[in-house]
Amino acid sequence: MSVYVLGAGGVGTLIASSLSNALKVNFVVRNTAKLNNLAKTNNTFAIKRLYDNNKTIKYTINGAFPADKLPDSKIDFLLICVKTFDTVKSLTPLLDKITSKTRILLVQNGMGVVDELYSKIWTNVDSRPTIYQGVISHGVWQSPENHDTYNYNHAGFGYLKICQVPRDLQNITAKDTIENDDVIRELVQSDLNVSTYSYEELLVYQIQKLLVNCCMNSTTSIVNCINYKLADLEETDALFTSIVSEGLNVLKTAYPVLKTSPLATELLSVEKEVKFVKHVGFTINSKNSTSMRQDVLNLRNTEIDYINGHIVKKAWESGMTAPVNDTISKLLKIKLAVNRRTAQEKA
Ligand SMILES: NC(=O)C1=CN([C@@H]2O[C@H](COP(=O)(O)OP(=O)(O)OC[C@H]3O[C@@H](n4cnc5c(N)ncnc54)[C@H](OP(=O)(O)O)[C@@H]3O)[C@@H](O)[C@H]2O)C=CC1
Ligand SMILES: CC(C)(CO)C(=O)C(=O)O
Fold this sequence. Notes:
- Catalyzes the NADPH-dependent reduction of ketopantoate into pantoic acid.
- One of its GO terms (biological process) is pantothenate biosynthetic process.
- Belongs to the ketopantoate reductase family.
- By secondary structure, this protein is an alpha/beta fold.
- It has 2 domains: about 5-195, NAD(P)-binding Rossmann-like Domain (Rossmann fold, 3-Layer(aba) Sandwich), CATH 3.40.50.720; about 205-345, N-(1-d-carboxylethyl)-l-norvaline Dehydrogenase, domain 2, CATH 1.10.1040.10.
- It has helices at about 10-20, 30-40, 85-90, 115-120, 180-190, 200-225, 235-255, 260-265, 270-285, 290-295, 310-315, 325-345, and strands at about 5, 25-30, 45-50, 55-60, 65, 75-80, 105, 130-135, 140, 150-155, 160-165, 195.
- α6 runs parallel beside α10, α7 (about 235-255) crosses α9 (about 270-285) and α11 packs across α12.
- Bound molecules: NADPH dihydro-nicotinamide-adenine-dinucleotide phosphate (NDP) and ketopantoate.
């Protein structure tokens, strides 16, 4: 079976590690320094568990290849963990190896990528591959000394929740086949706390996690701090409550299925969600530097349009406004622009 990881960064490498014993896992890589470093270690990398006395475990994959040099003519299973904004672009050179039999697991923060894939790449319902969506709350980052390697810090032990996305989003009750997927089964049996759900259930968990990122990622990036430094401040509570209450109001209108979902009724209240944001951000991932903060510090593009920006977009589509999330999005973009200008001035 051909298993590939597109986006072998923090999250991609962590998930690949849990598959590497049972399956021949391959990375799709664009960075020559990473390819060379991996070859030097015979395709072995290390994950350090910061939540478990820095226990470091080594894993070996089958190989790593540039997108135009994959040894297989077809991809059976593709794990996608590139940043949301890179998805369409990075998938394009692989499209001739993806068929309606390919299974693709997307593990990314934010929302809106499946809509983009269906509207830009697989417009014909029947030719679409099977898409699974993952929601992850594990925290992973790379220390600067490990730059251009696949060695990462697993900073917070969370969960990975997965569902099968309907081929046709207008027919969301179609029966899914996720339980029969051998790679998904491997993940469920791994030590990453993986479980599967229906599409409707996962939508609730995706929104629950989206709001974590709407609060944590943008605020830590704008303020420029490690997660725990925002904890126990009245102002943080007030800001997170505004982001969450506006977000829930918009998303419950944009996704009407939430109105009849018992799981949404149980989990998606403002009070419970703010508590959840603080639990994931400050307890589970207290020592993490959010993925968005890492992007802003390294002057890379950010996922803001798929996070706070997704709420702004959904509000606009529903004839509503989302001024809090819109302001946060703008501040984040200003922060990145200022960092880029400062770097240019120093150069
Ligand atoms: N890190 C975390 O704690 C968490 C992250 N997430 C989410 O998971 C997703 C991935 O985040 P994260 O792992 O942190 O991001 P990283 O930046 O660590 O990883 C993304 C990887 O994608 C690779 N990539 C991008 N374009 C291509 C391409 N065309 N071909 C091959 N590889 C490509 C990059 O390669 P290159 O090295 O060449 O740039 C990079 O290694 C994001 O949506 C993030 O929000 C969710 C929960 C927690
Ligand atoms: C869970 C959290 C907030 C961890 O920092 C995250 O999802 C991220 O950094 O992107």
